[in-house]
Automatic annotation (TrEMBL):
Keyword list, A-Z: Cytoplasm, Nucleotidyltransferase, Transferase
GO biological process, one term: isoprenoid biosynthetic process
Pathway: Protein modification; protein glycosylation
Identification of the protein by name: D-ribitol-5-phosphate cytidylyltransferase
Family: Belongs to the IspD/TarI cytidylyltransferase family. IspD subfamily.
Function as written in the Swiss-Prot or TrEMBL entry: Cytidylyltransferase required for protein O-linked mannosylation. Catalyzes the formation of CDP-ribitol nucleotide sugar from D-ribitol 5-phosphate. CDP-ribitol is a substrate of FKTN during the biosynthesis of the phosphorylated O-mannosyl trisaccharide (N-acetylgalactosamine-beta-3-N-acetylglucosamine-beta-4-(phosphate-6-)mannose), a carbohydrate structure present in alpha-dystroglycan (DAG1), which is required for binding laminin G-like domain-containing extracellular proteins with high affinity.
Species this chain originates from: Molossus molossus
E.C. designation(s): 2.7.7.40
Stretches for region Disordered: 1-23
Domain of life of the organism encoding this protein: Eukaryota
CC per GO annotation: cytosol
Length: 448
């Protein structure tokens, strides 16, 4: 068994923390993946989790095992770990990884500051990997920091959108029934073919369910089941709930799960996962501007009208960045910075410095759009453009910190109608960059 990574700590305290590097990153992680405001829940049980992550992802058809495939440049498994570790009542998270990927996994834990993780070696099948994880939690492990839990949750490393709510439901049901698992209605009807490749019979769809993850068990039940398992079960079995039934006569409680619990299996699932994450981190935009700025207010109004499903907040960068910390706590990953009174990039630079200090962008790419207004009666167009070309250097520098910066020049004519058109065009460009987070925009100066 692997020791905890350096800097790993005990269970997280409920609620997000803001101070320091780790605080910022994990505050950021508190509710974005769940897509909900995460009120920390309580669970009186001693709970640990085992995450099998030792597969090769054959059906994905790419050389990298799917759990290590990047989504927005971060490995898929890191999203799943983030979803598990934000649940403060899960004491230990044991991850089963193949020997050849152990070093890569340690790197991921360190880079994304995951906590409460222990690594064990995976087996050649999913059941064997899970068994190895369970063994690490057994009482008789010499030199182990892990303690035997009352309830163990088993969850695939490739199901990143697991929420605290379903984890609590399966853990609580496992305490009462001995075993519990998430289910979903079947999408397709299940049929049974005969040896000649023809239909033998079909199952009545409404009477069957798809078994998903997470599942939870009284530790003693599932450990005893795995100890009694045949080699055939360990080789070909796909259902842990069945093992509890077959070997311990425990009938699992089935709990309705959400469609987002699906298992990333094919390449298209990576695109789907990326879209879900992008959508979740684009639900809020913060406009950084001086309260007195009329033109900023107009832009804010236009953005609110054009993006009526998105929460738009605004405010100045206060002393010591207090206001920004508040915004970070509110899970905002998209900033529009209005530069009017000051020299071209002064406000943007201040915002970037705060974002860099907070280390907020470890987990998700943060978008910053530096907005400038073009009123070429006061500054000649060529000089304005020359100044604004600094955006390239600035963008290059902050890209290393996972901050995606682009500039937006908005034409500011006297004519009311033309100004409205420019603002609408600007709002549409802002919305596109925030939604797509496409690196082609980085360092570009967009013109509206
Ligand atoms: N020997 C194995 C095989 C699978 N798994 C894990 O079990 C989970 C669910 O399995 P599956 O989706 O089948 O993953 P793969 O086996 O990697 O995929 P494929 O069947 O397409 O090869 C994944 O997190 C996978 O890494 C594991 O820990 N050890
Ligand atoms: O959904 C599940 C129910 O336990 C498992 O994740 C699934 O059965 C794993 O099987 P495989 O590794 O063959 O895809």
């Amino acid at each position: 068994m692997e020791p905890e990574p350096p800097g790993a700590s005990g269970p997280a305290e409920p609620g997000p923390r803001v101070r320091g590097v780790r605080g910022a990153a994990h505050a950021a992680s508190a509710s974005v993946l769940s897509g909900a405001e995460a009120e920390p829940q309580r669970c009186a049980l001693a709970v640990a989790a085992v995450l099998p992550a030792g597969g090769s992802g054959e059906r994905m058809g790419v050389p990298t095992p799917k759990q290590f495939c990047p989504i927005l440049e971060r490995p898929l498994i890191s999203y799943t770990l983030q979803a598990m570790e934000r649940v403060c009542w899960i004491k230990d998270i044991v991850v089963a990884v193949t020997r050849e990927n152990m070093e890569a996994m340690r790197g991921i834990i360190q880079r994304y500051q995951h906590r409460r993780i222990s690594l064990v070696e995976a087996g050649v099948t999913r059941h064997r990997s899970i068994f190895n994880g369970l063994k690490a939690l057994a009482e008789d492990q010499p030199h182990s920091k892990l303690s035997k839990p009352e309830v163990v949750i088993i969850h695939d490393a490739v199901r990143p959108f697991v929420e605290e709510d379903i984890l609590l439901k399966v853990a609580t049901a496992a305490k009462e029934h001995g075993a519990a698992g998430a289910i979903q209605p079947l999408v397709s009807t299940v049929i049974s073919p005969s040896a000649d490749g023809c239909l033998d019979h079909s199952l009545e769809r409404a009477r069957h369910r798809a078994s998903e993850m997470p599942q939870a068990f009284l530790y003693d039940v599932i450990y005893a089941a795995y100890q009694q398992c045949s080699d055939y079960d360990l080789e070909f079995g796909t259902e842990c709930l069945q093992l509890a039934l077959k070997y311990c006569h425990v009938k699992a409680k089935l709990v309705e799960g959400s469609p987002d619990l699906w298992k990333v299996t094919y390449k298209r699932d990576l695109y789907a996962a990326e879209s879900i994450i992008k959508e979740r981190i684009s639900q809020q935009i913060c406009i950084v501007m001086d309260d007195e700025e009329d033109v900023g207010r107009l832009l804010e109004e236009t953005l609110k009208n054009e993006l009526n499903h998105v929460k738009v907040t605004s405010g100045p960068l206060c002393h010591a960045g207090r206001h920004l910390h508040q915004i970070i706590l509110e899970q905002c990953y998209s900033f529009v910075c209005v530069n009017v009174m000051t020299s071209e990039f002064e406000e943007t630079q201040k915002l970037l410095n705060l974002l860099k200090e907070s280390n907020f962008s470890i987990l998700y790419p943060v978008v910053v759009i530096s907005v400038h207004f073009l009123d070429y009666k006061s500054v000649p167009f060529d000089r304005k453009m020359e100044n604004l070309m600094q955006i390239r250097e600035l963008a290059k520098e902050v890209k290393e910190r996972n901050i995606l910066l682009c500039g937006l020049l908005i034409y500011y004519p006297q004519d009311e109608q033309k100004l409205q058109d420019s603002l609408r065009q600007g709002a549409s460009l802002i919305a596109t960059f925030i939604r797509e987070r496409n690196s082609a925009f980085i360092g570009q100066l967009l013109i509206a």
